[in-house]
Design a protein that fits this description.
DNA polymerase, domain 1, globular, Rossmann fold, alpha/beta, six-stranded parallel sheet, 10% strand, binds magnesium ion, binds 1,6-di-O-phosphono-beta-D-glucopyranose
Length: 224
């Protein structure tokens, strides 16, 4: 295995709580009450894609011009950036710090495939920017997750083949993206219907030994 490519929200840190708070405030300001159910469906979905889903949920999808939608999304982003400004290295999810260190020590390259345009700022607040060998810029992509483009781009940027790489995700749309791009997929708390190659209950179970074992096991199944 040459590289591990990470999703951010729900894998490296729990930024979903801040996204939810910011979307809840924005939605309430236009008369829409959103709950945890809808929040689950926003995981891994782009900012404008999330806004469209919220407007549809509230029956207001035809009530705003494109310019107004952009300004609503910007308002949400300002609230969100205020919330993530409080993040520190203590906000890394359990096991991630050790796992990143294990990968570095083993010479395995590390990439970021997050839909978030705030990814670099979050990595900085978490104190892990220097660990990353490559970061995909989501604003340059044609299609968001579940399309394979984001993970395929990370693999290309590193100069490897997809089957030499692992992708780690907490969202069903993200696992679909990894599988579509042909990487080994690790799902954090995803349902069996997501078809991750290896599913674990939380980031605490991420160790290089366990990943290697499952990665090689799949290769042996493909090329016995
Ligand atoms: P931003 P991921 C995703 O991050 C979040 O899961 C999703 O809720 C959010 O809308 C999206 O990033 C865009 O984020 O508004 O900061 O650009 O899971 O792909 O790391
Ligand atoms: Mg995620």
């Amino acid at each position: 295995m040459k590289a591990v490519i990470f999703d951010l929200d729900g894998v490296i840190a729990d930024t979903a709580v801040y996204h939810f708070q910011a979307w809840k405030d924005l939605a309430r300001s236009i008369g829409i009450e959103i709950g945890e159910n809808l929040n689950q469906q926003l995981k891994g979905i782009s900012r404008m894609g999330s806004l469209e889903r919220i407007l549809k949920f509230g029956g207001r999808e035809h009530d705003f011009s494109e310019a107004e939608k952009l300004s609503l999304a910007e308002e949400k982003n300002q609230t969100y950036r205020g919330l993530i400004a409080t993040m520190t290295p203590a906000d890394l999810l359990p096991g991630i710090k050790n796992f990143l260190a294990e990968l570095k020590d083993a010479g395995i390259r590390i990439g970021l495939a997050s839909s978030s345009k705030n990814g670099p700022l979050i990595l900085k607040n978490l104190g892990i920017t220097a660990i990353f060998d490559t970061i995909v810029d989501p604003s340059k992509l044609k299609k968001g997750k579940p399309d394979p483009e984001i993970f395929a781009t990370a693999v290309n940027q590193l100069g490897f083949q997809p089957e030499q790489c692992t992708g780690i995700e907490d969202a069903v749309a993200g696992i679909q993206s990894i599988n579509g791009a042909g990487l080994f997929s690790v799902g954090i708390g995803v349902p069996a219907s997501a078809h991750a190659d290896w599913t674990i209950p939380s980031t605490e179970a991420l160790t290089l030994d366990a990943l290697n074992w499952n990665f090689i096991r799949k290769q042996k199944l493909i090329n016995p």
